[in-house]
Design goal:
The chain is mainly alpha-helical. It is built from ten helices and no strands.
Length: about 200
Amino acid sequence: MTKQPTDEEKIQQLDLALEHVFRGIDQRLIQRLKEEASSEQSRRLLVEAAGIDDPRLIDELADLGVTVYGLVALRLVPLVLVAWAEDAVDIQERQAILDTARSFGIREGSVADALLDYWIRVRPTRELLDAWKRLIERELRQLSPRGRRHFIELTRQQMEQVAKASGGRWGLGKISPAEQRMIDGLLYIMNKVAKQ
């Protein structure tokens, strides 16, 4: 008598079967977003609508496929990085990120939603962290000291919410050591910029 696969094994098999399909879709989506983000019109919108006048940051955003319409997703990069701290994003962490995204006005099916979904499914690159750092430097400099503290505290709470969503390493409702290191590192970056 053969052993029937568990539900978890069935889900893993389905994930493996769909992985090549998503990889092809992801590659086409990201390529399309990169082409759109590299257009002169998109670059002009980043300058005019978002007030970004740093050519290096505009280049980095274009390389990542981030247009003015996807810029708000970049604000949620710390949440994505915390979710990836343990080498995989689980369904509870995904939902916590999407709940925060919806509260930011990111609608399902939007460009920002597509970017966020991609970053949740495919481990973000170092370039994404670098672009986020440059954007945060710009954003924090525009805030008052009180506004900076509030922004950093809100981001800390959101990162902890994502970390606690899966209950840490053993499902005990705690933040795992890897998640805490990620949170601490991202807070260090923001606090360092805020003091400049």
